[in-house]
Amino acid sequence: MRSDQVTGRTWGAKGITPVVRRTGNRFSVNAMSAISTKGRMHFMVFTESFDAKVMCRFLARLAGHFDRKVHLIVDRHSAHRSKAVRAWLADHKDEIELHFLPSYSPELNPDELVNADLKRSLPHTHRARNQSELATETSRFFHRRQRQPHIVRGYFGGQYVRYILDE
């Protein structure tokens, strides 16, 4: 999420371009999530760059929430395929396993629908003034979705992600 991301719409008098006031500060936060067809959501909001270290931290947190093996579908981001992640997975092969989507196929990733929902759901009337506020708003979205399993299950209803429900 970026502070200068365009969200929402506004109105203006005919022939007059509306001006939306905001600071010139640019800041961002990153977030990653894992969702299940049963409506569960796990997430992590962070300010550092997404790399293998962050991915291993997320995998450890995710594996710690389950008493059975987790099968995680991921895209082919370089952090997902890194040596450090492969080494972490080798040490935890009974806890978690990654399954890779084909290259350049965001339409097959239901988590992309979570990202779109997040961007649509950020407040339009109040913009975060700093990184901390943006992180708080982002976390608030994920906490709200955790309490709405029917919406999380709905992410799997998209035309291209229904393959996950097939058995």
Automatic annotation (TrEMBL):
Stated name of the protein: IS630 family transposase
Lineage start: Bacteria, Bacillati, Actinomycetota, Actinomycetes, Kitasatosporales
Domain (Tc1-like transposase DDE) ranges: 3-134
Pfam family, one: DDE_3
Species, as recorded: Streptomyces beihaiensis
Transmembrane segments annotated in the record for this chain: none
Family matches, as Gene3D superfamilies: Ribonuclease H-like superfamily/Ribonuclease H
InterPro entries reported for this sequence: RNaseH-like_sf (IPR012337), RNaseH_sf (IPR036397), Tc1-like_DDE_dom (IPR038717), Transpos_IS630-like (IPR047655)
